[in-house]
Records
---
Amino acid sequence: MAIIFDTLSLQKENQRFFLNTEEVPGIQNINASYENNATHIKYLGGNDTQFLPVGPQVGKVSISNILISNDLWLNYTGESGVNGYIMKNFNDYTENFSFVSGYLSYYHSQCVINQLHKIDVTFDIFRNIGQLGIETISQFFELQAINNSKANLLFKFPTAATTEIILDDIGANKITSYDVAININRNPVYGIGSRYPIAVKTNYPIEVQCSFQIEVDSYSASRLNVFPLAPVYRNVSITTRDVYDNSTVLAYNFSGMLLVSEEYIPSVDNTVTVQATYKKLLNPYTNATDFSPPAEPVVPPPPQSTCPVNAFSPFSGPATTKYLKKTIVGTMSTVWHYLGGDDIISSGILSGYVELDTAGNVINNTMAYFILDRGDETTLNPGTYPIDISVNDLIGFGFVSTTQGFHAVPSTAFRSWAVDNIPETTVSSTLKTRIGTTTAPNELTNYGPADITIDYSLELSTPCTA
Amino acid sequence: MINFNEIDVTVNGTGILSENATVSANNNLFSVYGLGRRNLAPQAINGPFQGNMQFDYILDIAYEPNQPITTTLKNTFPLFHHEPSRISIAGLTGFAYLDSYSINISPNNPGKATASYTTFTPFSGALAPKKGNFPYNTSGIIALSHGWSTKISTSDEAFSFPTFEFNYNFQANWQPVYVIGKTIPTQIHLMSIEENISISKDFYKNIQLAGQEGWQFLNFGFGPNANISLVALYGETIGGQPPVINININGMKVTSSKLSAGLNDIVKNTVELRRNY
């Protein structure tokens, strides 16, 4: 039998989308694009020239999504950016089309009678987009979490039939569709010395627009010129629930929305309909679903001393903070994965961290070994992998030993193991420190998976309040 | 008729990536009137000939002819008798003195420079297309400056430069000396030099009446000998060494501070520093 097709094109089942580490169900299509800022320079006398980067490098990602389970997008109407990964293969990080530092610029939610809820979003991408390697440590851990995630999504299906809309005095009139649109104007702040923005600010206010199509019975319309002296405000509440267990999937609550337009549409073919549109402005003290006035700031009680008598203050930090020395011994382990390819595996990043609470108890320790298949290359270039965190509460640590769990890996595998004795971060009330990375080729030549175990010893100074 | 792509702009024989260039000349004629006459012709000569050649251009650090001239002028002032530079624009040549030079670095854009030369003797040559068949100079574009690659550097390290705008301005005050019986000056004296730097940041400090040291005011933290370094966008090297333009702010004093706020942008404070010779 003749072979008609020798390869298959990529299908939808091989394109899974993650927002940070969380898989988004119900994605219908994604348009992830970039156009670099190559501009050819012109000059007097120039018949031939070259391309030069002029202007910022910004990508764009548009996503259409059927609302299933919950709405992840609304979390990003504020100041937070997000990373996104379209993964072909969980076990091969390189087979992706991803973006780093995406900021939501447009959100549109729609529900029409007899259709599922649809959400369209657009992100402006300020760092990078495309088939990405590992650029940041957070990206590394996100990819690791994606690799460890199971395809066990919680599915909830809201429909138009399970959606409740409250529009003040709409009475017996029938709402047949709604649209909620949010435009977020981002202001990336660029500085000299880098191609990436120093910060991404949001230009407030954010405008929210709600439109309703209403089949009317005794609709009481407004008039063009009532604004601005007698404007019409309405409270809008939209709640949509799971068709099976009636649990809330998505809820909008907009108080005091200004009526900005009405379209009155009688027709011989249909019942009389009205398209009513409302607008509201959001400020930094409100969010997409809660428009109550900002709460009064909570004044914390004066700190109580938590320091024992032997606490010391070794650093130049605040005089009110002292430290209690403590030694912590533990073990962390991971599994080395071989990611495919015919070439000798080059090298990778062996990275781990220990997370401690303020009492110095280990609440999490994680190690990961990430292999990069670099094609024909046989070594990974030594280099510095970006760490984006820094706080110093650790006064030193060292390795006790390394236990090699590799299968058939030469003992030189750890020869270039480098230990950072510089702590990297604190996360809220906990102390989190990276314990080290490899910085040179490891000469791994065999297939995995294999276990890696590291014994560590941390000499920690736990902060306490004097 | 000559199109823009058919001309050259050179400084002492080195081509530049000029985007705009002007050649202007003034002869200082004066209308002389007298009682009893409606007109009194011809107009009289009231001052010397003065020409100006000005151009703005994209900075190719490997072939930047003007910044070394500023360095020479600063290093030799006031002892040296300066020779004019040979400026050529579209076939017109002037032997001229650099009177102003500026560099602008902004985020995401190539570095730009502007130079202005004054001449006290008429131009030579004629409007003509360039002779060579090369686009810019014989080696082509080598090392373009860019906002992405502008750093603060010491002799050991380079640091990113998180600021929103950087401008450097150099001004030289030339005085021609004329003698009776001649229409061109017998000497050109360099009387003074002033350098200004403006840097736009996101912090504000009050300036002091006596002026603070610029590097301290700007929190450079690397001591007075840190440079603002313009390096090549793609890290190119010449003879194994990266070409660089270093602008040192040692000895510069803060002269002004201007806070500005506008819609849809962050609040910025532009600090100006000055140094005189």
---
Amino acid sequence: MTSSPPSATPAEPHVLLRDVRVAYGPRVVFDRLSCSFPRGAISVLMGGSGSGKSTLLRLVGGLQRPEAGSIRVAGDEVTGLSETELMRRVRPRLGMLFQFGALLDSMTVGENVALPLLEQRRRSRAEIEAEVRARLAEVGLADAFDLLPRQLSGGMVRRAGLARAIVSRPEIVLCDEPFSGLDPVTTRRIEALLVDLNRRHGLTLIVASHHIQSARRMAHQVVLIQDGVVVAGAPHELERSADARVREFFEADGDGPLPAADPPGSVPAAAGGARAEAVR
Amino acid sequence: MRVRAVESVGFRALRFVEELGRMAHFSRRILGSLVTPPPRVRRFVDEVFDVGVLSVLLIGGSGLAVGAVLGLQGYNTLVRFGAEESLGSVVGLSLIRELGPVLTGLLVTGRAGSAMAAEIGSMVQTEQLDGLRMMSIDPVHLVVTPKALAMLLVMPLLSALFIVFGLVGGYLIGVNLLGVDGGVYVSGLEGSVDWSNDVASSLLKSVVFGALVGLIATYRGYTAEPTSEGVSAATTSTVVVASVSILVFDYFITALWGV
């Protein structure tokens, strides 16, 4: 497996957000945010800390509800669905890799990965075990079946979380900071895994990350959220953006807010065919 | 100034009522998940072990100590009136009607209730419950209900254990140390304890306390802020709210039982 730039071409939107507003009390995270994520593509969500990358993933998964706006996942409008409807209609199409794995402490890695399949109650235990072992082997954790999450390293937890996210064969996988706090070798390994999953299974991947090098290598599309404004395009397009803030983000580590290059309220224009949407 | 004080009282009252409503909704979800398949038998058994079996030493030791103190204090008081042969009745009725269920409730709240709130709270903090929701698994069904149900089942059993150890403690002090006749101690106990009245009210209290502690601990953990301070606050408030609730409900059950 390699992590060279993937060849798939972005197609129609698999996930679509329109005029979404999210606020925590007086702090407005998004106001009229709109963006889309093509089917079968790897989209990397980027932006400074606190820009709302994780919030966006939670909105797509229905874990958090917007104050206003529309969110469509594979054609289904999710904002009006009850928790039960979300569980029945939307989440079976989604898998999510959380920042720290979110594996259940009380279960072994094998039990964690088997959990979604056991809950579906469609297959025998032997079939489920075979499937779980295959997914663990796919992420390089064939020997971790009986280990507890506390016995794993950070990278292994992330890979086990990924195995759990893909075991029920979702269409869309949401990854929240899959590379944070990992060494370069582990980062490359997880990156290669994501690219491989996208190529072999045609998964739509939405990856929230600070990691610019990974985004350059793996992304079909980068969605940059900066001060509530979304700029989207291929990585090489954004690197040549006419907007100095966008270029600066790619030149920096992307770990914090950038100095304002434009007057407040102005709309940055993305160069090279990148799509820019003003959100406030 | 007075208007602000009234406003503050009104705001707190509204918050209290709102919180009660949320707890009622949460308990309805627990009840609903009791009849939703699949049954979480293995998780329930694990919780019974955590809450019950791991509390046995604490409850047994505490019961023995409380019974010993009751034996000592009871004897010293009764001997002034020449009524030391009533020691079995005093120790037995005190333990069965009041101290057994109440002290067990408080001890289990401190040991298992706080741990329950902390565990669920840390699952909220580490996004484990969100992970379940993303797998289309209801966290109330998988995590909360087995814990609340285990607390409900275990509390009366631990209360009974506390009472038995308390009676033994009273016997050891009263009979072996202070010289009360063993037969008198036991027959006094037998003669004064009424099954349909004393034991039934004790059982009712421990069941109610089990339900209260289970509900409060799981609710506080489930609604904890996803931060270290949030988990800490959930744990503390579980102990405080559950302990006060036990004492308040104890009064009302005692008062209404005789009506």
